[in-house]
Amino acid sequence: MLRISCPWCGPRDEPEFRWGGEVPVIRPGPPEAVSDSAWAEYLFIRDNPKGWVRERWLHALGCRQWFIVVRNTLSHEIRTTTKLGDSLPETAP
Amino acid sequence: MLEHRTPLDSIRERQAQHGPTIERRDFHVAPAHEKGLLLLQSASVNSLQEALGQVLDLTLPAAQQVNVLGNYALLWLAPAEWLLELPRDETDPVESALTQRLGPSLTVITDFSDALVSFEVSGSGAPETLMTGCSLDMRSHAFPARRVVRTALAGVPAILWNPGNPDRFRCLLDRGFAEHFLTWLEGTTPVLG
Amino acid sequence: MRTNPHRLESGGRIDRSRPLSFVFDGRRYNGFAGDTLASALLANGVRIIGRSFKLHRPRGLMGAWSEEPNAIVQLGSGATAVPNLKATQVEITEGLQARSVNCWPSARRDAFAFLKLFGPLMPAGFYYKTFMWPSWHWFEPTIRRAAGLGISPRVPDPDRYEERHEHCDVLVVGGGPGGIAAALAASRAGARVVLVDDRPVLGGSLQWEEKSIDGQPALEWVAAAEQELRASSSARVLKRTTAFGCYDHNLVALSERIGSEPAAAVRERLWHVRAARVVVASGAIERPMVFANNDVPGIMLASAAMSYAAQYAVRPGRRAVFVVSTDSAYEAAESLRIRGIEIAAIVDTRKDPGEIALSAQRAGIPILAGYVPVRARGTLAVKSIEVGLSPANGTAGGSARHLECDLVCVSGGWTPTVHLYSQARGQMRYDRERGAFIPAAGTKGFQCAGAAAGNLSLHQCLTDGFAAGREAAKAAGATSDAGLAPIAKAERSAVTAFWASPRDGHRKAWVDFQNDVTRGDLELAVRENLRSVEHIKRYTTTGMAVDQGKTSNMNALGILSELLQTSIPEIGTTTFRPPYDPVTLGTLAARHVGGLYHPLRHTPLDRQHAAARAVFEDFGGWWRPAWYASHGRNREECIRVEKRAARSAVSLFDGSPLGKIEVRGPDAALFLNRMYYNTMRTLAAGRIRYGIMLSEHGVIIDDGVCIRLADDHFLVSTTSGGASRIFGAFEDWLQCEWPDLRVLVTNVTSAWGNIAVAGPKARELLSRLDTDIDLDPHAFPHLSVRRGRLESVPVRIARVGFTGELSFELSLPAGYSASLWQLLLERGSPMGVMPIGIEALQELRTEKGYLHVGTDTDGRTLPADIGLGEVLARKTDDFVGRRSLDRADAKRSDRLQFVGLEAHERATVLPVGAHLVADPKTRRGSHGYVTSSCMSEALGRSVALGLVQGGRSRLGESVQIYSDGRLFPARIVSPQWYDPKGERLNA
Question: Which backbone phi and psi does C857 adopt, to 5 degrees?
């Protein structure tokens, strides 16, 4: 069970959080200018790397804030967590 | 005239008739004194701070902190969200007074008095007991006075805070879980010794 | 009372003043407090304690604690029965009832014993091969019965289980010398420490090895250490507690056995320990050797024999042969010898065991150096062992020696217990000399110490454990000086790993005793070209299941290394899985059983419903009335009566669980316009609009009404189960996609009670209450909202409903809703008011042709599929899911569409879930299915809703609906049966 440090509330156990997938994902628009493949890319296609990945997580049972987690999908190590407004951290250390 | 009732009234009546379900010297759980609750959400912290200062002489607490002043307690819940606990009959006047001073800033006040119920959990065994159903360390070295957290307790979302004394907690939770919460806490068998 | 024929006259750490009697396989025996079931059985001369997994061979004790693979027992009976415990770990209590598993009627006289004759039919992977014709499933039940472990109880467990979260700086797993030293160091350094050990007493091997620490007898040192830790307010000592699993970020799960007595308040407790640092001092497990017939009862680990003799004062045999490749076994031999057990010989596989052998020889023990075991003789008990010069020194068996004995003590090496470390993804390196994988430094916050780190002498264990505890405390932020490590006499503890003797013809030689895996099975796997150790593990089952390879893994690797001509580090190890030892399901469930399993929310009208004898059910996490038993004799009648009240008089429905979300701010309209499929920007203040919300995939995820209270203030109502989901979606979009929008959202679901007053007499009922709201239909039309006071309480009334009748939804602070409900019942009594449950409401809305998202839609339903396609054409703004509606697939004409269905037989209620068959002759192919269905008294016929392929262009078409072997002729229709012009709704 992961221990995730919410930037607002500090370290809490994984069941308090909800996973929101890789970031950044840019929502394309306006709809009439978006091709089927660009829309499919936005909806479904992710890097899913073995190693470091940037994700968004929600502290659902705490302050209900979304924030950024840099996590290693192989070791589950978490390097850093940052608030949404801050600049997006790099995956490489 | 309609009568006002909360799930805590039923619990109080039952306890008055039959006494508490459990008798433990080191741990007590009881409905807290009925209070009013106002949820404050603001995209403009300065104006909220100003209004609170003018109306109640209260300052906004830092993250995970509670500011207590007399009959008022102001709990941090989220970066732009606080919960004000106040005497029940002051709920409407304070809400109006705050609204008046907030002016056009984006701040909303919601009466949460009927949304949540509050229990008082106390005794030297209180941290142990809470830690059967809560993944946080509730002992005083990790959970000092005036600390507040939103977390899961007894399998349901809860706000836990310490009003100032060690081994004394307040648990705020959805009114619909009041009976469940009591059943859970009264049924715990904490670690002895 | 029978005496213990194999009990030593004196010694041991049992309490001879407290005799206890217990029953094993139906026979009564005696033991003493402090005995395990295994030691007490051994004291009573019971040698056969179990039968092997596949072949039902008689098996005796091999170990004395958790390493035991054979002696699996079942305790108790009925509801409190516990299967699959090891007799070596069961403390006896007065009246304990135990039986062996996988045999009948007893381990000694097992009716399935004939199975061993069929051994050749059951090689590795036999179930993939032998029992393939006509079908594995044909044989499976019989094979499962014959091969298996304990039997689970079939009734609920009446015992109580507890759980506890714990946080500490340093968790020390293992209360042997290394673990105690680590805990002392960490505690003295100022860290918060938890020390956990699975035995009833601390000390580990010090309980049976006679040693000194810091110049005092080791057990006195243990007692003082325990006292010191218990006296500290920041240390916790947990005995009878197994650290069974390690999970991410240093979460270690413990199971604490508290009481097996019926009076115990709690039987077991599950601990979730989150530790900054973990020190694993879980010791090492001695290895058996692989040779022919090495599973005959009476062959046990040297350390186990010593433990039985010294700790439990039990004579494990009268004449012992030691077969060893370790120095430590000489100590065991000496321990047995001084307790009066004859040592026939020490057979050392090492050619030159050194000084330790010479001193044993001086004590009169014959030494056979350079010899290996060839085969054991005996069926129910070992009678003798044949040894020969090892191939390195000649031909095995070439110079065979036949040694009579009733006990063979083996010691092939020591395997550090690295299960937890491995679960924590700790890296291991192979140590050739010790023939074991040893933790290599480097796992974050997790380290091994003492024997678990490969240190076999007591002195090393103490030094290493103390250093590990000190380091862990420091890493966790503790700053005090831990002082000096305890010391013990330095001693040699050499090992030359020995796995297996050369194959002895066709005779079976066991590798994994618990799973009945032999050397032959490994050979077969390699012959069949399995190469990866992970594949061989699964194919042969070696190292799997309950045992997790405690005694077998290294021997299997050693043999595979020879067979594959590959070095052990190249083969690598398999991954250890939790649990280290079996854990009861009761402990894992802890208190999350019965009503506490899935807490349900209660509405503010709970007591009113109960008083009306509501039948409650879980609807989306709320405990709600399905129907009221006070309304009739049975469910159907009650629902019919409730529906009649709603259609002809007035009904009350508790809508408190309906999701209510306030959306406020200058950009509220803009925001909701993006969240809803429908246009919400143009909604006038005081008005209400029905809307649906989509996922980005275009699929309908929720519906409800959107109320505009003011220009910058909306109230969104969601389905009861959708409240937190939709609120979460609002927060998500506002925080992550449109942080620039000036909007604040608040979930006020619990703050407000909600009562729907519906029926032709709804207005009449409300007019009997004191309110400042004008209820006149012209002043207050359908789909509008008014705020005011009702009986002096602030109220919001919305003209919306789900029944199709004149309907008012009253919202007021939750605390007043029970009182208002009572008042409505009183005032409405003359006009026949009646509370209605979910079942009646569902039927009422079905008659009206209203859909219920999630019931009449599925995970693919798009707006056009439910007839809302034209809304899209009128909306120009973007919204969540819009682009997905423009895909070719979204525009197919044969999509499943929402329609009404009428059975030809007016009295036939079409079964929900029944399919429209594409070809009624073959009854194959589906054109859709029934989603809602009921008998309608108001319409005088049954009606149903469904999703049908291209259904909206097939109105009037006759179809066949198939269910349970029957075909129902039906017609596709528009679902607007009841009040199609909306006269009742708008009344």
Answer: -130, 160
Locate A71 and state its tokens: 């996590």
Q: Which of C683, C687, C685 is nearest to C710 (CA)?
A: C685
Q: Which two tokens stand for residue C93?
A: 């209590």
C94 is written with which tokens? 């007065």
Whether the pLDDT of residue C137 is over 60: the answer is yes
Task: Report CB contact under 8 Å: B157, A61.
Answer: yes
Token code pair at residue C294? 């090495």
What is chain B's mean pLDDT, rounded? Answer: 93
Q: Which residues from A are below 8 Å from B157, CB to CB?
A: 61
- Among C108, C106, C82, which residue's Cα sits nearest to residue C93? C82
Cα–Cα dist A16/A24, whole Å: 23
pLDDT 10s digit of each residue in chain A, 93 long? 999 999 999 999 999 999 999 999 999 999 999 999 999 999 999 999 999 999 999 999 999 999 999 999 999 999 999 999 899 898 876
Would an 8 Å CB–CB cutoff place C877 in contact with chain A? no
> Quick one: B32 exposed, middle or buried, by C-beta within 10 A (0-12, 13-18, 19+)?
middle
Task: Please tell me the distance in Å from A37's CA to the nearest CA on chain B.
Answer: 38
Interface of C with B in 543-602 (CB under 8 A): 591-592, 595-596, 599-602
| Model pLDDT, residue C141 | 66
- What does the pLDDT look like over C354-411, one tens digit per residue? 999 999 999 999 999 999 999 999 999 999 999 999 876 555 556 789 999 999 999 9
> Alpha helix (H) ranges present in chain B?
7-18, 45-56, 91-102, 126-130, 178-186
Please give the share of chain A, as a percent, with pLDDT higher than 90: 91
Q: What span, in angstroms and rounded, lies between the C-alpha atoms of B7 and B117?
A: 8
Determine the 3-state secondary structure of C583 from DSSP: coil
CA atoms within 13 A on the CB side of A66: 22
**By CA distance, what is B158's nearest residue in A?**
A61
The average pLDDT across C646-675 equals 98
b/e string for C665-692 if b means 16 or more Cβ within 10 A? bebbbbbbbbbbbbbbeebeeeebbebb
CB C549 within 8 A of CB C542: yes
From the CA atom positions of chain A, what is the Rg in Å? 15
Q: Say if residue C5 is preceded by a cis peptide, omega within 30 of 0.
A: no
Q: Report the pLDDT value the prediction gives residue B193, as an integer from 0 to 100.
A: 47
Predicted confidence at residue C567, as pLDDT, reads 93
Contact C279, C449 (CB under 8 A): yes
Does residue B43 sit at the A interface (CB-CB below 8 Å)? Answer: no
DSSP C173-188: E--SHHHHHHHHHHHH
Q: What is the pTM (predicted TM-score) of this model? A: 0.94
Tokens of C838: 């979910």
Express each pLDDT in C781-807 by its tens digit.
999 999 999 999 999 999 999 999 999
Per-residue confidence (pLDDT) for residue C1, from 0 to 100: 46
Class of residue C561 by CB neighbours under 10 A (exposed 0-12, middle 13-18, buried 19+): middle
Q: What's the maximum distance between 2 C-alpha atoms anywhere in chain C?
A: 115
ipTM for the complex shown: 0.98
B151·A64 Cβ contact <8 A: no
The alpha carbon of C764 is separated from its chain's Cα centroid by a whole number of angstroms, namely: 56
* Residues composing chain C: 987
Query: Which of B75, B138, B149 is most worth mutating to test chain A (most A CB atoms within 10 A of its CB)?
Result: B149
Most A-contacting residue of C740, C880, C883 (CB-CB within 10 A), to test interface: C883
**What are the chain C neighbours of B2 within 8 Å (beta carbons)?**
791-793, 816, 819-820, 823
